[in-house]
Sequence to fold (377 residues):
Amino acid sequence: MIPFNTPPYTGDEIEYIKQSVFTHKISGDGKFTKLCTEWLEKRFGAKKLLLTTSCTSALDMASILSGFSAGDEVILPSFTFSSTATSMILGNASLVFCDIRPDTMNIDENKIEAAITRHTRAIVAVHYAGVSCEMDTILDIARRYNLIVIEDAAQGVMSSYKGRSLGTIGDFGCYSFHETKNYSMGEGGAILVNNDAYMERAEILREKGTNRSKFFRGEVDKYTWVDFGDSYLPSDINAAYLYAQLMHADEIYNDRMTTYNAYLEALRPIADRGLIDLQYIPEYCVHNAHMFYIKLKDLDERTRFISHMKENGVCSVFHYVPLHSAPAGRKYGRFSGIDEFTTSESDRLVRLPMYYGLTPEDRDHVIDAALKYFRER
Fold:
């Protein structure tokens, strides 16, 4: 069975992990945490980036730093992972789900304004599949209504919008380095703080409510508890694993793009016949080949396709069940307007295997299995 995903491994991870172990500094903010942070900030032009234990914890931080109060509302797409929602709930906000664009599966920027009430405090832009939301419109709305913008760029590392790296555009950006992502530390993430007003408090929040970061920079003679905080520091062992991949970042990117383009070329004739829809990449985006998905006619056909691929030795999978239809979604939020595309489009979507190191032979087998399905039908 060709798996849907295999965690990235470049070959240098074990050596870097050994280095981390032998420094006797395997807790947070060690040598490799600093190296990863420096690389990421420089590569993406980030003002301030802090590694975290997950993208969920990065979103938690963004939510807490936003300072929501009971009754405040956050607008977000329903087509996203539960972390996007649970982090906003942690920060005391209520959820207002907005419909998506069927072409990118991102929040429909033209439906956001209708979802705004006097209680709205923030917009969460989820960059699905590493393809950017239409950020100019979202930022314009945020400016006019004095709203915070949080980018859920879990899937967006190495993607950009009009030349700007995803995660660096809103007030906060959040990355994932989970094993399913293009670059991994097993479990891990990062928060990007792009608004100067939140920078010092972000350090304090991440460091258990202390000003420990200022102490290590020599800005205070001792550190102490100064505010509410939590522990969001990943082990330096995890950072060592990630650093090995950052040193091969372009190689990983190019490898994934090769697979993406091979799928695209092989399946475009099927799309031209009207049997599937292919992933759409707006001209303002540079994407990172985080995933390759197709959309079939409906849920029944998607189920048949997944079964066919499994019978032919390929693991292909669907993605999110819309949050507004889940028990917790009904408890903590409401849908703004009409669910025109969220459910119907999510029912059609299926993802093909996509990972660094997918061999040409396995890639061709995936393509052959998919083409066989459409020949047989």
